[in-house]
Amino acid sequence: MSRTSTRSPEGTPQTAQHDESVLSHGLKQRHLSMIALGGVIGAGLFVGSGVGIAAAGPAIVLLFAGTGALVMLIMRMLGEMSAARPSTGSFSVHAEEELGSWAGATSGWMYWLMLCAGVAAEATAVGTIMHSWVPFVPAYGWVAVFMVFFCASNLTAVKNFGEFEFWFSAVKVTAIVAFLVLGVLGILGVFGDAPGASHLTGHGGFFPTGAAGLAAGLLTTISGFAGLETVTIAAAESDHPSRNVARAVRTAVWRIAVFYIGSMAVVVTLVPWNNPKVATDGPYVTVLDRLGIPGAGTIMQIVVLVALLSAMNANIYGSSRMAYSLVGRGQGPRFLAKVTRGVPAAAVVASCLFGFAAVIAGIVWPTTVFAWLLNIAGCSVLVVWTIVCLTQLRMRRRLERETPDLLLVRMWAFPYLTWLALAAIFGVFAVMAGSSDGRQQLLGTAVVAAALAGAGHLKQRRDRRAAAEA
User: Fold this and answer.
1) Lower CB density within 10 Å: C or N end of the chain?
2) Considering only CA atoms, which of 362, 425, 369 is closest in space to residue 69?
3) Contacts for 465-468 with beta carbons within 8 Å, 24 or more apart?
4) Taking the mean position of all CA atoms in its chain, how far away is CA 369?
5) Is the pTM of this model over 0.85?
6) Rounded Cα–Cα distance for residues 391 and 352 (Å)
7) Residue 253's pLDDT band (boundaries 50, 70, 90)?
């Protein structure tokens, strides 16, 4: 791998290894557009949002509006940095160059941990669904089948990941659009009596569970958006990285808001928020049943399965590329840098093995090791977003000063909206600190983040000494 010189925040030259030319560039604009659009439409929206509705009631619409606004700001920041300097390590590379090795290591490895834990959770859910359809094959058998399948597909060529994700995303987007159309028709009374505002103002009002319910629902909505960063990682392996990621970000941000906020508004308008089926069967199944759509449960179970498989595929891809980028910059074991036919094969296998080990932990230690892993993974995205904001503040000013022509995508109302996003993230941390479960997540995440930041800081000091002695 070739070596490129960067400069640390202290001004000391440091050496970073991230020659990514050995990776293939098999992704097209259509792949990135669908990855950006479908990347955050996962099982968390189709099923997990029911938990948020049960916690916050109709006010879940406001939570998704607020969270969606934060996500759009983060997406815009990522788009600005990735369009200017496309990299397989995306925000981790930018954080290392702007803030130092500690920031690159912390954001990169916490994101890797989050994605691998996501693979385990999604694989477990896939196994449960498939076992309900084909009961003579145990759930863990289906987990093994799909883990091996996606590991193999990610080992062959990046275009396979792109094609799978393109069609997976197409199914998810089609399902959301169809649901929104049917939902609006239901609100207008096409499928029976129009509900009006009865479910929004009745059953305890718009804020039936108060501040505690809003706090519980907030954590659910935040976790539902995790994974949107994958498109900026994938951009580096497309045919025209800067142009493609710029287009993908511009077309995705407002559609994400429409899908999430629109679908939640449809749900709480058509069915009572305290209907127990909203949390148990899922809000989409409950609404389709209310509209009298035949086979609603089966239809949504298929869509959820596709969403889970899509998330597995994307998370294996994203985690392997992040690990490859990190070790290429001296932030991990060197054997993970092995590339075969344009694919970081060692990183793919390592990410899959970690995910499968987490699945085993979920079977053997479901309430201890696995619960601890999921708690840290759920909070990791907030740490990543914090570092993204800090990086963008520094990188934008440097780009404006040195290479303004690289700013193909610009953050809105810079720097005010970046600071607003950062304040919102700290607000979420404060809300989490107000509950016992949230404090446990924060404590575990803080320990891991501190360990990674410490290791990165030691590397930064070694690089500085080496540069001084050279």
Assistant:
1) C
2) 425
3) 466/15, 467/12, 467/13, 467/14, 467/15, 468/12
4) 22
5) yes
6) 29
7) low
Structure confidence by residue, pLDDT tens digits, 120-166? 888 888 888 899 899 999 988 999 999 999 999 889 878 888 888 88
For 131-152, give the secondary structure using H, E and C: HHHCCCCCHHHHHHHHHHHHHH
Q: Which two tokens stand for residue 165?
A: 């994700």
Comparing C-alpha atoms, which of 164, 159, 167, 163 is closest to residue 343?
Answer: 159
Instruction: For Cα atoms 103, 108, 114, give the angle at the middle one, nearest 5 degrees.
Output: 130
Q: Which residues, 6+ apart, have CB-to-CB distance to 246 below 8 Å?
A: 79, 83, 408, 409
Q: Map residue 13 onto helix, strand or coil.
A: strand
Q: What is the pLDDT of residue 21?
A: 54
Mean pLDDT, all residues of the chain: 84
* Peptide linkage before 366 cis (omega within 30 of 0): no
Q: Which two tokens stand for residue 444?
A: 């575990």
17-55 pLDDT tens trace: 445 557 777 787 777 777 766 666 766 677 678 888 988
pLDDT of residue 97: 93
Q: Which two tokens stand for residue 146?
A: 């799909």
End-to-end CA distance of the chain: 20
Q: What three-state secondary structure class fits 271?
A: coil
- Would you call the peptide bond into 415 cis, given omega within 30 degrees of 0 as the criterion? yes
Residue 157, judged by CB atoms within 10 A of its CB (0-12, 13-18, 19+), counts as: middle
- Whether residue 15 is predicted with pLDDT greater than 60 in this model: the reply is no
Structure tokens of 458?
Answer: 């030691």
Burial 286-299 (b: 16+ CB within 10 A, else e): bbbbbbebeebeeb
316, 443, 461, 466 from 456: Cα distances, Å: 24, 20, 9, 15
Q: What is the DSSP letter of 339?
A: -
